[in-house]
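General statements about sequence and structure are easier to judge against a single worked case. Part of our work consisted of pairing the sequence of a single chain with a tokenised description of its backbone. The amino acid sequence and the backbone structure tokens for this protein are reproduced below.

***
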Amino acid sequence: MMSRKKALFCLLFICSALCLLLLCDRYRPAGLCFSRESGFYEEPFTLELTAPFGTEIYYTLDGSEPDENALLYTTPILIDDATSRPNAHSMRTDTTPAFLSENSRYKLPDYPVDKCTVVRAAYRDADGNFGRVKTESYFVGFEEKTGYQDIHVMSVVTDPANLFDYDRGIYVLGRKYDDYVRNAGSLPEVEEDANSYQHGMEWERPADIQIFDAGREALLKQSCGIRIQGGGSRSFLPKSLNFYARENYSPAARFYADLFGTGYMADTITLSAGGQDNIAKFRDMFVSALTKDRAFSTMNYEPCAMFLNGEYWGVYWLTERYTDTYLGSYYAVDEDNIIMIKNSELTRESEEDWALYNSMLNYLQDTDFTDEGNYESLGYVIDLQSYIDYYAAEIYIGSSADWPGTNEAFWRVREPAENGEGGPYEDGRWRWMLFDVNTSSLREKVVEEDVLKLAMTRSPAFYNVCQSGAFKKQFTLTLMDFANETFSVQNTEPVIEEWLGLMREPIEVHLSRFFGRDSVYRLDEEVADLQAFLRRRKPYAAQYLKENFELEGELAPVEIETTDPGAGRIVLNTITPTFDGQGKWRGEYFTDYPITLSVAAGEGYRFAGWEITDGEESSLVTETLVELEIPNDGLYIKAVFEEEGT
């Protein structure tokens, strides 16, 4: 029989064990935990996974969702540089019809592409139910790798079947496409039967994304939806992707991260592979950056290297997407009070909105704008400077392949603010949006094309508005502003040089991966092509203005000088001239129309006047806003500033 003392000792032991067990269970994580967060690590390490008591942890390393067939976690996982592992998705040949031709422009990598380690894990309870999948991405040893410096890095993780399944994978040609080829005996001209050409929610797949900035700090980690993005570029490799923040993927209906340094929290973001500009991947970003101060919408861009289920998948632009959320954020308007037309389609179907759109279109096409009163009323329907800026930019850069008509978008608020009490964009006027200028634009083969005539032919509305003398004047001045400043060689060369300094190495790594190691020269070819367009475009653009608008004057030089470039801001028509080191700027304008100059003195200075030279005579005009006729032999103006107190 157990003694009283021994029984008491056993009771105390049992109570202590129970307390210890309860204490351990109290501090055991309520969910699945990883001992290391996603990120960049210089040295290999072991990853420990923990889960609630009584559960088992299953994990995968290939992006697939863990189930009972996945790896059972029993010991810590070694996380090292995964690059030496065999290429998997990179070796697929069912992603583009180019691989079905004998002379494919794409090359499968003959070396191990860079890789990160993707760990997806979930625990299974005693009843066999799996908890939520947790996904982390680990980049080990990347300080020694080239192609990632000073740009974002993004990890996209989704079950491989979501991308590459024969019937439902969104990244492949698929069964229906193969059946067509087999029955027809040839490749179709348009790959509309391919999986990658399908649209809509049916072709959206769940994914986990993680984005790191250039300093390798985590910007975003979120579950979301993923779709293929683009038109004809859906047959390219790699493809552009759209990412959608939805509450059925995560608690957040937006990507709550300042991805573009503007404070905008997007509900949709795009990873652009460049569309038809898939070598340099430059034109969309380039035009948007140069025209950011114009009266039409542009997108912001961040360069980004992407890893797909752990494999290097190329260089992209992480960019915004035009949505009601975008417009509501940047223009301070109610997201539910927006009408947006893109490629002749409403983004939100409504008979009332169609009526407003058709009313505007019919008004532009059918109204006699040679009548000054009618033209003045046009400014109540559309933002005229937005319309002029947008068309002038597209025409100057040579958008002749698929514009206007396609790749055109505009918006307005549905219900204008009453009595003009709302913000500047709540007036109910239509405004334009720039996107997708990567097909024909800024290429030497179109430098001589008369895109002004083409636009007037393709767009009855634009042709009709161009009959107005007032419109011709403002359009001519605006297009020449673009020629003299925005797209001038002096203004664009520094942008190109800065971009090349940042992106040459990442793009050369990208070209080696998708086009073969001997393809890196193509970047310089593309840059040279763009530079040739910019050097040669101005005289052709001016010639077509003169011919199509029947201008009677000639181009004459306009030279502006300032006594101190830092003393104040000078505006010429619609631009702020960029003065050289000697405080001088030079352009050319048609003598048909006067130019407008305005000035605002900076702190510590006062504006003394415009010193205007016309032939051999000079005069001083003290008004801050002047309109000046241009003589045939040119106009020479000096902005004179004086320090206050002198």
About this structure: The CA atoms of residues 551 and 592 lie 7 Å apart. The chain is about 30% helix and 25% strand. Confidence is low (pLDDT under 50) at residues 7-29.
